[in-house]
Structure formats: structure tokens, C-alpha cells
Amino acid sequence: MDFKRAVIKVGSALIAPTSNGCSGQYALAIAQFITNCQHQGKEIILVSSGGVAAGRSIIHHGSPELSVTTRKAMASVGQMQMMANWQRFFDNPCSQILITQSDLADRARFISIKETINVQLANGVLPIVNENDTVKTDELAVGDNDNLAALVAQVCEADCLFILSDIDGVYTKDPKVNSDAELVPEITEITDAIYAMAGTSRSHLATGGMKTKIEAAEKAIEHGIDTYILNGSKSETFASLLQGNNPGTRFTAEKEIITAKKHWLKHTLKSQGQITLDAGAVDALVNKGASLLPSGIISVSNTFQAGDTIELLDDTTKEIIAKGICLYNHNDLRRIMGKHSDEIDTILGHNYGDVIVHRDDMVILKEYSK
Ligand code: GLU
């Protein structure tokens, strides 16, 4: 274990195994592992699920299908139970940090979270993070704690992310139905084949535990954070880790990491609109490291303001090739698209600069970057 600062994400199945209140059944071994790490001088931040599962027995609900409001009520009361459950396994104090997507998307709040965690770690406190389920809305949700943990790992500049659940790691096939399925110990690149192996796809329609874990690993390794998917219901997992072994699936961090700003842009900002680019603009962006000029824009969709994040599409493939901060709003853009930069002033009567998306405010998606 050669990490200095790790985020450990613990899934609901380990906090409330019967979905009926919290239990120490698995939390105890996890807490012992955390304490062992701390004794070795390592810093740990916990991202804990389980609010909803812990509050389930307290809030009346008629059917197994919970309404959004019922889930929020459960999350809020269960959060107290979950925190109390953790605290009983630690001598040092735990802190509660509840965040939403909008907290991570706002640069000032992002930095505030980071500074708070740094002070707490310096004082021997164990920060415990969860999504603020009560106040989040669909638009403001990270949605799952795997992705949240990857973002938290980025916020606090961790060098390792452990995702603990009740599955051993990524298998070559679904182990529940294929007796010849094998655990994959090491993944160096996350491709469509990896998503497919995990029985899921990158499609927004797909759901399922492994998809969000691989998404989280993809976010983390891009930021230089080694990521493990591990079975936290087996105490051997922790013994093995402490001996320096890998008992699950390890995703190796990329050597060339993208800058913190571009990572933040790609992963924490939701896009407000889309613009489609001609082949010349796509080539300039992908191969020449250029900023986006109005001349290469073919169409503009949705409504957005100057400063919003937008997706840039290749007209030939209709795929998203990049994401960036747009310096003009959708109305202005519709009027200047296809035109030369030096015509902007005449057409609009104002000018925020020659470029539509500056190179420094743009991230080319991995499949396209050279
Ligand atoms: N925030 C949710 C909870 O505390 C968990 C979300 C997840 O497990 O991905 O219940």
C-alpha cells in the first residue's frame, strides 16, 4: 500500500446489509482497516452510502418502490444513524460533509470543501462524505456515491480510491450465471470492452452497480488516482491489502494526467447546450490544439448563457468530441456561426473576443485526443 491519501467508498450493502437499519457486521472490519492505515501515517476520507437504507425502517412506506420524497426522508434520518454507527468504531472524531453536484460545480465551494477536509485531516478527524440527498434535485445530483467518491478523491487530491461493495471486482463475465467467469486483477485502460465485460454499457440508459463503479474508476485514473474495486464484506480483503496485495480489481492511474481545471470541466459541470462543428474545425481542435472559432460552427442547439458549459459535436460522426466553456450565448452564436471572427462586432454590435471556446477552457474527450 504505497498511497498517502485515500478515499474509501462504502456501499449501502455494507452499512445496512438487511436494508433495515445500520449494522456493525461489515463496518467494524472496514473501520479497523481505516485505523490501521491511519497508524501507518496515511490519510483517509470516507464516502459512505447507507442513509436511505438506514432510514428505511423509520419512515413508513407502502411499497418496495420508494417515492423520491420518501427516499429523501429516509436519507435524512438514516444519515444520523449511519454517522452514529461509524463513530462507535473510532476513538478519533468523525465529521459529516454533505454535498451536491452544484457544490462541486462551483469553483469557490469546491475549494471550500477541499480546505475543510485538509484542516480536518491535519487534526486527526475522519471526514465522512455523503450526497446531500434531502436538498438534491435531479439536475443537482451526482446520483450515486461511486461517482461522488471519484469526485471527492479529486477534490481532496487523493492518490488512491477504494470502492468497497459486496462484489469481488470486475469479472470477465457475470459470475452469477457463468461458472467460468474470472476476476480481472488489473485494468490499465477503460474501454467499451471493459464496460461490456461488466455487463453494462456507457449508455445513459444502462443502470447497475458495476457501471457506476467503472465510471468512477475512469474519472479517478484520469486524475492520477489508482482505483480498486474490492469486496468489503470479506475481512480477508483488508488483510490482503495490508500485506500489499490486490484482492480485487485495480485500475492503474494514467501517467499523463489532465489538469485539475480540465478534469473539473469534464466531470463536474453539466452541459447546457450543444454545437456541431464542420470537419475543418474538428481537425483544428483535435489535431492542432486550436481554440474554437465561429467559422467552423454549423448548428447550435438548446439555450445557454455566455460562460455555460457546452458539448462540441463532430458533424460527420454526430459524436461528442469535446466539452468547453462557451464565451457567447446561444442567440449570439446562431447569428455568428459560419462567419469570420472579424465579422462578430458588425453582426452583434459587441465582441467578447475572436474565439467561441478557448483552448484552456476545453477538454477533448479521450477517444478523440491524440
Ligand atoms: N446517498 C445515498 C444514501 O446515503 C447512497 C447513494 C449510493 O449508494 O450510490 O443512501
Proportion of residues in β-strands: 15-25%
Describe the largest sheet: 8 strands, mixed
Number of domains: 2
Low-confidence stretches: 201-208
Name the CATH superfamily assignment of the largest domain.
Acetylglutamate kinase-like
Order of helices and strands: EHHEHHEHHEHEEHHEHEHEHEEEHHE
**What sort of overall outline do the alpha carbons produce when their principal axes are compared?**
globular
Ions, cofactors, ligands: which are bound? Answer: glutamic acid
Spatial strand order of the main sheet: 3-4-2-1-5-7-8-6
Termini distance? 32 Å
Number of extended strands = 13
CATH C-level class of the largest domain is Alpha Beta
**What's the architecture of the largest domain in CATH terms?**
3-Layer(aba) Sandwich
* CATH fold-type name of the largest domain: Carbamate kinase
Number of helices: 14
Structural class: alpha/beta
Mean pLDDT: 89
Helical content band: 25-40%
Radius of gyration: 22 Å
What's the quick description here?
The protein has 370 residues and is of the alpha/beta class. Helices cover 36% and strands 18% of the residues. The protein contains 14 helices and 13 strands.
